[in-house]
Write the structure tokens for this entry.
Amino acid sequence: MAPLPRNTVRDALSVSLTVGAYGVAFGAASVAAGFSVLQSCLFSLFTFTGASQFAAIGVVASGGPALSAIATASMLGTRNALYGIQMAPILRVRGLRKILSAHVTIDESTGVSLSQAPRGLEAMRVGFWVTGLGVFLFWNLFTLLGALGAKALGNPASWGLDAAVPAVFLGLVWPRLENNFLRLVSVISMAFAIVITPLLPSGLPIIATASVAIVMGWPER
Amino acid sequence: MSAATSWTILIATSAICLAIKLFGHYVPERWLSNKRLQRINALIPIALLSALVVAQGVVVNTHIVIDHRLAGLAFALGALLAKAPFPVVVVGAAVTSALVYHLH
């Protein structure tokens, strides 16, 4: 067997720890939105895709109905299906391992794996598994810490949590804005959300903004 | 929020998100090769995350409300423009917002 690609493991672990640490923000925001500590931890264990988790509790926190929370989180999760299509032929696993690989197919595990392409197929596999399982471990650990911390700290506004959550969303969308068209989509989406906020019940403007993606993605460009 | 509502959201979100991940690992590639579907799918995270910035940053119930959170978001935007690492963006936004909150 080839020696473990050391640089790959180092890349994967540094991503795991940095990203996993945001579990603190999720755990805290989840408790502030009205979920219990146990529910917050179950979110991170079983939903395990950060943007969707933040979206679900974000819709709830803004007073939206359950269906809107579930739909927004699910739509944000659809990109993981595309990652799966890319990863399956690289990983080539079966049975329980395949199910596990699907569960840890997220932005970071796919990103690190694809970035290892110059180091070969084995490095891509190692990158995927170490990142996926590493983020899983740290994300869940830090979710618990954040949830417990939020319970202890009380009023989220007094320590800035109510601004940290939109900052997380801004930080998540930022690296995706690779060209002017994508920046335009983002700006129009924000403007659209602002305009329809007073017109729709709480929580619905978020899912309604998906229409911007459909309209702007429809024509060839 | 009632316990039934929170459990419904938790269980449904988890089940659907896992189903989506499994779908990607099991379907033949050609199923999702439609170009229009791919373009829209690439834009959906951008649209939804942008709407979430608004919903969490400047909305209370169904009203646009400018408060301490916008100061935090302004810091986050500046930090991202300055290519600051993610922890600086998030923690800085929280600290800025909390300062403005307490000064008021």
Q: What stands out?
A: The two ends of chain A are 46 Å apart (CA to CA).
